[in-house]
């Protein structure tokens, strides 16, 4: 798991790079280290305000309530992980200082980590599908030898754009812009582990 590690009152608080989720269990431990007072994330989750916020966030993001709060057991990822938009109200429940600190983390992640995370998600989600679809395009073109070289190129480029739209939700030029890379480097940026772009 790729994560950002924040140090707070001698406690390491992890935040996942891919989705910004923060380990609320570690955050509560950092609060206890600072104040000597124990506040448990489970107690906050039982408050009416937290329940209402989770329902509202679920409706707005279309993320199921059970996915907004994730309990992980074992290893270095154990604890209760909460959506970044939940981390701020949880931190508010802890203290003003924690609210400020967590809002800084979330803003920083949105400014930097979210872009890297989107790039990673694009690569992972499109790797296998992209190869299958581009192979189908090549196969179609190969079955039509009567097509001129210009027609073959036009077909491949235009169908590839539609594939990109289906797989990534945007055309290749928009995808390159969103990832802040040149269109020429897009294939390299989306290359799978085996070095095969599938384009």
Describe the overall structure.
InterPro entries: HTH_APSES_sf, KilA/APSES_HTH, KilA_N. GO terms for molecular function: DNA binding. This protein is mostly helical. The protein folds into two domains: 3-94, Mlu1-box Binding Protein, DNA-binding Domain (Roll); 114-189, no CATH class. It has nine helices and five strands. The chain has helices at residues 24-35, 41-45, 48-61, 65-68, 84-94, 96-142, 149-168, 172-178, 186-189; strands spanning 3-8, 11-16, 22-23, 69-72, 79-82. The strands form two sheets. A three-stranded antiparallel β-sheet has the order 3-5-4. A two-stranded antiparallel sheet has the order 1-2. The protein starts with a strand and ends in a 10-residue tail after the last helix.
Examine the coordinates and then state which fold CATH places here, giving the name of the CATH topology of the largest domain. Mlu1-box Binding Protein, DNA-binding Domain
Instruction: Bin the helical content.
Output: 55-70%
Number of strands: 5
| Number of separate helices | 9
Overall body shape: elongated
Q: Write the H/E string, N to C.
A: EEEHHHHEEHHHHH
Largest sheet: 3 strands, antiparallel
CATH architecture of the largest domain: Roll
pLDDT averaged over residues: 82
């Amino acid at each position: 798991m790729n994560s950002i590690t924040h140090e707070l009152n001698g406690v390491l608080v992890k935040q996942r790079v891919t989705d910004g989720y923060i380990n609320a269990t570690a955050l509560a431990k950092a609060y206890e280290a600072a104040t000597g007072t124990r506040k448990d994330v489970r107690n906050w989750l039982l408050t009416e305000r937290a329940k209402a916020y989770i329902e509202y966030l679920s409706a707005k993001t279309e993320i199921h309530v059970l996915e907004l709060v994730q309990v992980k057991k074992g290893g270095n990822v154990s604890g209760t992980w909460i959506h970044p938009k939940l981390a701020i109200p949880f931190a508010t429940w802890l203290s003003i200082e924690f609210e400020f600190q967590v809002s800084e983390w979330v803003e920083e992640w949105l400014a930097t980590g979210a872009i890297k995370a989107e790039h990673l998600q694009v690569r992972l989600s499109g790797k296998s599908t992209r190869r299958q679809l581009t192979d189908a395009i090549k196969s179609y073109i190969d079955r039509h030898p009567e097509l001129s070289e210009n027609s073959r190129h036009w077909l491949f480029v235009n169908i590839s754009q539609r594939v990109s739209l289906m797989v990534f939700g945007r055309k290749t030029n928009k995808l390159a812009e969103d990832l802040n890379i040149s269109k020429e480097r897009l294939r390299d940026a989306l290359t799978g582990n085996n070095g095969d772009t599938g384009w």
